[in-house]
Specification:
The complex is a heterodimer of chains A (484) and B (312). With 484 residues, chain A is α/β, with parallel strands linked by helices. Chain A contains 18 helices and 12 strands. Chain A has helices at 7-24, 43-59, 76-85, 101-108, 123-132, 162-178, 182-198, 219-232, 263-275, 290-293, 298-305, 322-328, 339-342, 370-385, 393-409, 426-438, 445-456, 469-475, and strands at residues 33-37, 63-68, 90-93, 112-115, 137-140, 148-151, 241-245, 281-285, 312-315, 329-334, 350-352, 365-366. In chain A, the strands form 2 sheets. Chain A has a 6-stranded mixed β-sheet with strand order 3-2-1-4-5-6, sandwiched between helices. A 6-stranded parallel β-sheet of chain A has the order 9-8-7-10-11-12. In chain A, α2 (43-59) crosses α17 and α4 runs parallel beside α5 (123-132). Chain B has 4 helices and 21 strands. In chain B, the strands form 4 sheets. In chain B, strands 1, 3, 4, 6, 9, 10 and 12 form a 7-stranded antiparallel β-sheet that branches. Classes of the chains: A alpha/beta (484), B mainly beta (312). Chain A binds chain B through residues 187, 190-191, 193-194, 197, 210-211, 214-232, 234, 237-240, 321, 323-324, 326-327, 330, 345-348, 384-387, 389, 391, 393, 396, 480, 482, and chain B through 1-16, 37-43, 53, 56, 58, 60, 110, 141-143, 145, 147, 149, 157.
């Protein structure tokens, strides 16, 4: 896990962290447990999970059980030592344990399950077992600072999966507390949109290299740039472009409430529909991490099957700059990817064949069964051919408000969790070590935020109390307010 | 209609700053100049505009001037270009192909303007070219965005249908740097001289003046060594030429291909003593001259002529 560290740097961090948590955690004298999953290969994810688990133990004193794994890329030895420094009571390698994570959740009936994974084939069942056992589940996200979604049993809406539950709960929160205050939040949402457009975004976040920012700022610039892109990639210049964003076809089977069995089936059916609609250009864009997410090479096989059809192009995720991609895409199609809000925030409509955390907030057109998917896809393509605009100003506004929520208000910055861009290695270890030893812990934003989420039974961590209009008015950026 | 794109201006945000645009005459020499607004396959530089990462690549600059403009690019092909190219091509053949000349087609506002040939010379000083062209006032949109495109010839769609010199490097733009860009109000037109380059595939007439026909004169000589410093301002040694002896009696059977649209160009050819002249009609497009099959190993020299007007 500590990928490029001298022993001393990581060791110093461990020593300081041991002292920090010895002084900052209440004694866990009862029988309660918190279970934390620490199998991710990336130190930053494990750091976020353990930090959140400890913040929770300040509110609800408990022993900490950390689950590791010997999966490729992860370093159970490093995790074990880090967990020790974060005052874990037990560290178990799940591959050597007689009981699987789902069994542990049922057996221990912990105060909470804190996990960075909610829908792979091992942790999906564990999360659902915890939900059935009325154990709160906290999903730590790979985010710039600390971001987490939470499901509490008393908030349940009867959906079978974590994602489906969160879709409902986040949508309800958004509708009740944020959408009515959109005018107050507009300036801040605009600032986040400005930063998102000029930055690598997600999933562009994974891309690295050049060409990750959208530099286009106006419709006129986009039109001009588009004509070049259309020729460069050989699209019929007078026809709209529908971009299909390939998703993790091999990972996460059956855990989303999709209208398809899995993303592979969705891709196959989408390619079939595309083959029968040559009046638009179809751009199939591969997942940014095909090796990990499409080991069965579904994408490549569809590309081969449609090689003779000039209306269908299959390209790798990094073959187009974001300028090029955004200049030609007239409609995005995804099963649940981040493009579901990222494109609508800039006026490009998206059809989403399933649910994701933001989909009830309204940025994309969500279809819930195959028939609706086919009809919506056809109708949208035909409308584009007629030159119609198929996204509403409200969808754009909702997408930008979600951008604000997911990138700003629902992320908690703290000295304990340096920004994601600081990559694992001596630099990151030193920053955490210095912050733990030099900054006093009282009122740390992570402790305050976890306490607010836990006691308020809220569906996600918040930077401050978003349900309080006075707090919103005081704390959000309002440097470009306009009256309407 | 269909390219209307997002409704209204949903790409814009309230935090967008007004464009910082240079009023010509202006020299852009940094990729971080705010006038360099949008790029594709191009890595911005600190002390140069930047370097092409892909072929084609595009750079959009904003100009604050409504009148006609002259734009001149300073193109550089150096050792770094060749290294980038090898990394991009990523195949064993790269080493052999990396030394081949690059034919670049420079477009602005979606129209071809100028071609340039750059030949890598590893370990030696960089090859440079300064293609220059005019933009009419009507070609500059209200927001002042001038979109320049650099196409390596092999990536240009017509290359698949028309003639393609065999020894041109693929991925032609990769690694090529734009050291600077000069933007000036149009002054007196500096007459461009046509540039003739010999390749394995024939003769490239790279940058026709565009304002009249061109005469290319071929002359026979006995040995390659005598070519250096021979007469004429623009002597090109056609080292790999394999033209028949009969060439000089019957005249070469020459085929001319427009490299932009792939179409055939009607040429006239005439033998004049020991010289042979090929007349190319006025064209703003680069032209490839290829010669009918030739078995002789005789090396000849090629002396490009000039348009009737400027013939010396």
């Amino acid at each position: 896990m500590p990928v490029s560290s001298t022993p001393t740097s990581f060791d110093r961090l461990l020593a300081t962290a041991s002292t920090y948590w010895r002084n900052n955690l209440p004694a866990a004298t009862g029988a309660d447990w918190v279970i934390a999953e620490a199998t991710h290969h990336d130190f930053r994810v494990v750091l976020r999970t353990l930090t959140l688990a400890n913040a929770l133990r300040r509110v609800a004193p408990a022993r900490l059980l950390v689950l590791t794994s010997t999966d490729a890329g992860s370093d159970p030895g490093g995790v074990r030592r880090l967990a020790g420094a974060f005052a874990a009571t037990e560290v178990i390698d799940v591959r050597r344990c007689a009981m699987d994570p789902a069994g542990l959740c049922r057996e221990l009936s912990p105060l909470a399950l804190v996990t960075s994974r909610v829908d792979d084939d091992q942790w999906g069942p564990a999360v659902e077992a915890a939900m059935r056992a009325r154990v709160p589940v906290i999903h730590v996200r790979r985010a710039a600072s600390l971001q987490a979604y939470a499901h509490f049993p008393e908030n349940g809406t009867g959906e079978p999966t974590f994602r489906a539950e969160l879709t409902n709960q986040i949508g309800a929160y958004f509708e009740r507390h944020l959408w009515p205050r959109r005018d107050l939040l507009a300036s801040s949402a605009e600032l986040v949109a400005w930063r998102t457009r000029g930055g690598p975004g997600r999933p562009g976040w994974w891309r690295g290299g050049g060409g990750t920012a959208c530099e286009l700022r106006t419709a006129a610039e986009r039109r001009q740039f588009r004509r070049y892109t259309m020729e460069r990639y050989g699209f019929a210049p007078d026809r709209p472009v529908v971009t299909v964003f390939h998703d993790a076809a091999s990972a996460a089977p059956g855990t989303n409430r999709e209208c398809f069995g899995d993303p592979a089936e969705w891709l196959a059916e989408t390619a079939r529909h595309a083959g029968s609609m040559p009046e638009v250009n179809w751009l199939f864009l591969d997942h940014p991490a095909p090796v990990r997410c499409d080991s069965a090479e579904h994408f490549a096989s569809h590309a081969a099957r449609h090689a003779g059809n000039p209306a269908l192009r299959f390209l790798g995720a990094v073959e187009l700059s974001r300028n090029a991609l955004w200049s030609v895409t007239d409609l995005g199609v995804t099963v649940r990817g981040d493009v579901g809000y990222e494109l609508p925030a800039f006026g490009i409509p998206v059809i989403q064949a399933g649910w994701s955390e933001w989909s009830s907030c309204g940025p994309a057109t969500v279809v819930l069964d195959r028939d609706a998917y086919r009809k919506t896809l056809c109708a949208s393509a035909e409308a584009l051919v007629r030159g119609e605009v198929i996204i509403s100003p409200e969808q754009v506004e909702r997408a930008r408000l979600w951008l604000w929520l997911s990138r700003s208000a629902a992320q908690v910055p703290s000295p304990l969790v340096p920004a994601w861009d600081l990559r694992p290695g001596d630099g990151l270890f030193d920053v955490i070590e210095v912050n733990m030893s030099a900054v006093e812990s009282d009122g740390d934003p992570v402790f305050a935020a976890v306490e607010r989420m836990w006691t308020g039974r809220e569906p996600f961590l918040t930077r401050f109390d978003l349900t309080d209009p006075h707090a919103l008015a005081r704390l959000v950026t309002r440097t470009r307010e306009v009256s309407r | 209609v269909t390219a209307a794109g997002p409704a209204a201006d949903h790409l814009a945000t309230r935090y967008d700053e007004p464009d910082g645009v240079p009023v010509p005459p202006a020299e852009l020499s940094s990729g971080h100049d705010p006038a360099v607004r949008v790029t594709d396959g191009f890595v911005r530089g600190d002390r140069k505009l930047g370097r092409c990462r892909t072929s084609p690549a595009a750079v959009g600059v904003k100009v604050g001037f409504a009148g006609p403009l002259r734009i001149t690019l300073d193109l550089v092909l150096d050792d770094t270009s060749v290294a980038w190219w090898a990394g991009h091509a990523g195949v064993p053949a790269a080493a052999e192909q990396a030394g081949r000349p690059r034919l670049l087609l420079i477009h602005a506002q979606r129209r071809f303007r100028r071609a340039a040939v750059l030949r890598p010379e590893p370990g030696r000083r960089a090859a440079r070219a300064a293609p220059s062209f005019e933009l009419a006032a009507a070609e500059i949109p209200a927001d002042g965005l001038v979109l320049l495109e650099l196409w390596g010839y092999r990536e240009w769609p017509a290359a698949a249908t028309g003639g393609c010199p065999r020894d041109l490097a693929p991925h032609g733009a990769v690694g090529v740097a734009i050291a600077g860009l000069s933007i000036s109000p149009t002054g007196p037109s500096c007459a461009a001289e046509p540039n003739v380059v010999a390749t394995d595939g024939g003769l490239l007439v790279v940058d026709p003046a565009g304002d009249g026909p061109i005469r290319v004169t071929l002359a026979a000589t006995g040995s390659p060594s005598r070519g250096a410093g021979a007469r004429g301002p623009c002597i090109v040694r056609h080292a790999a030429g394999r033209l028949r002896r009969a060439f000089w009696r019957a005249g070469p059977r020459v085929r001319a291909t427009d490299l932009i649209d792939g179409g055939a160009v009607p040429v006239r050819s005439r033998t004049n003593g020991v010289r042979h002249e090929i007349g190319i009609p006025a064209s703003s497009h680069p032209v490839l001259l290829t010669f009918a099959a030739a078995e002789s190993t005789r090396v000849i020299h090629v002396e490009p002529g000039f348009s009737e007007k400027s013939r010396r």
